[in-house]
Design a protein that fits this description.
With 381 residues, this protein is an alpha/beta fold. The protein has three domains: 2-262, Metallo-dependent phosphatases (Purple Acid Phosphatase, chain A, domain 2, 4-Layer Sandwich), CATH 3.60.21.10; 269-319, no CATH class; 327-377, no CATH class. 28% of the residues lie in helices and 23% in strands. It has helices at 21-38, 58-74, 89-92, 96-99, 136-143, 151-161, 276-281, 304-311, 340-351, 359-377, and strands spanning 2-6, 14-15, 18-19, 43-46, 79-82, 104-107, 117-121, 124-131, 169-175, 177-178, 197-198, 208-212, 218-219, 225-227, 244-250, 256-262, 269-274, 290-295, 315-319. Strand 2 (14-15) and strand 3 (18-19) form a beta hairpin. The model has no long low-confidence stretch (mean pLDDT 92). It binds manganese (II) ion. Residues 266-350 form the Nuclease SbcCD subunit D C-terminal domain. One of its GO terms (molecular function) is endonuclease activity. Keywords: DNA recombination, DNA replication, Endonuclease, Exonuclease, Hydrolase, Nuclease. This is Nuclease SbcCD subunit D.
């Protein structure tokens, strides 16, 4: 059986003021759907964080509807989805008991849990165990078990309640932070304070475990427990990561082989470092990427972002690590005993640490002050 494992779509994500829905639609329509067809996929797994928030924008919902319809109703491939910590389990579960009959398996709300779902290939059954994201407090309530204190306790209890028969080949789908996994900047912690990590050893009975939550593709604890990673790069900290889908082949005896097929997004997310002038003058074939500019200049760049956006319309952020702020420009003086001229000189030094104001510049400022004070006296200002 050949499974496509994907996770953390975060549909409707807002990235530096831009909704990424069109970029997400591009990757899903132009790359994921053809992959499902061309690779002869028998089942698709989406391991949580379908949406970026519990109340997603309408066009994000429309996109998920469109993609899910193409996978299940049109391509006839079973589609397994669990809710992640960003999803509303209740909203995601709408219609889940009906959709199950169409090969669209959604596990969100605990009361409506479905599965284990059993599919068959030439060698027999493969069971899919769906474990949506669950808070320890919700698990305590659902299982009526006061001893559940941590995410690890909750998962152990959850796994125990969803046994799928021992001889069978089994695929587990879960949304957790597995200990030893490497985090990225775009994940929301599963708990504030306390430990949210679970031991990957909890998954040792499964043939393959398809995880969601960590946005970098990686294996944890062994080759059969994996994160597929997010659909796109959702922070600049991820700019060197490759995003894509994991293809998992499960053989007759429950042996697995995995491969990673990368996506090529319509607009990449990357960091560009250098001097402002060099960046503006340099040749760049991908000026429509989302870019964080890390300018190595020491002097301030007037309207730097606006100028960068003329060449790079998706310029998202600007950092100047070498900017010397503070030092001579610090407020180590008494504001009330300082003249306007001294104040401006202090400001100029903070902005241009490499040189003092010239006499001509000082004279110009003096004229402006004199003119302004005069106009103020005349009641013009
Ligand atoms: Mn996520």
């Amino acid at each position: 059986m050949r499974i496509l494992h994907t996770a953390d779509w975060h549909l409707g994500k807002l990235f530096y003021g831009d909704y990424l829905t069109d970029d997400q639609a591009y990757v899903l329509t132009e790359q994921l759907l053809p992959m499902i067809r061309d690779e002869g996929i028998d089942a698709v797994v989406l391991a949580g964080d379908v949406y970026d928030r519990s109340l997603p924008p309408a066009d994000a919902v429309a996109l998920f509807d469109e993609i899910a319809t193409k996978i299940t109703a049109e391509a006839g491939v079973p589609f397994f989805v669990i809710s992640g910590n960003h999803d509303s389990a209740a909203r995601l579960s709408f219609g889940s008991r009906m959709l199950e009959k169409q090969g669209f398996y959604i596990a969100g709300e605990l009361d409506k849990l479905i599965g284990p779902v059993v599919l068959h290939d030439a060698y027999g059954p493969v069971a899919f165990v769906l474990l949506p994201f669950i808070e320890p407090a919700a698990a305590r309530l659902y299982f009526g078990d006061d001893t559940i204190r941590s995410h690890e306790d909750a998962l152990a209890r959850f796994i125990d309640s969803r046994r799928a028969g021992t001889a069978m080949r089994t695929v587990c789908v879960a949304h957790v932070f597995a200990a030893g996994g490497e985090s990225s900047d775009s994940e929301r912690p599963l708990s504030i304070g306390g430990s949210d990590a679970v031991s990957p050893a909890l998954f040792s009975d499964y043939t393959y475990t398809a995880l969601g939550h960590l946005h970098g593709p990686q294996q944890v604890g062994g080759p059969n427990v994996r994160y597929a990673g997010s659909l796109l790069k959702y922070s600049f900290g991820e700019w060197r990561q490759k995003k894509g889908a994991v293809i998992v082949d499960i053989d007759e005896k429950g042996g697995t082989a995995t491969s990673f097929l990368p996506f090529s997004p319509r607009h990449d997310v990357r960091v560009v470092e250098g001097l402002f002038e060099d960046i503006m003058a340099g040749e760049d074939l991908h000026t429509d990427d989302y870019i964080l500019f890390r300018l190595t200049d020491t002097a301030p760049i007037l309207d730097g972002m606006a100028k960068l956006r003329q060449k790079y319309p998706r310029a998202a952020a600007l950092e100047m690590p070498n900017r010397q702020s503070g030092g001579t420009g610090e407020r180590d003086f008494d504001l009330h005993r300082t003249t306007e001229r001294q104040l401006f000189e202090s400001f100029a030094t903070a902005m241009m640490p490499d040189r003092p104001l010239t006499e001509a510049e000082q004279a110009c400022m003096d004229d402006l002050w004199t003119d302004m004070l005069q106009r103020e006296g005349d009641g013009l200002l």
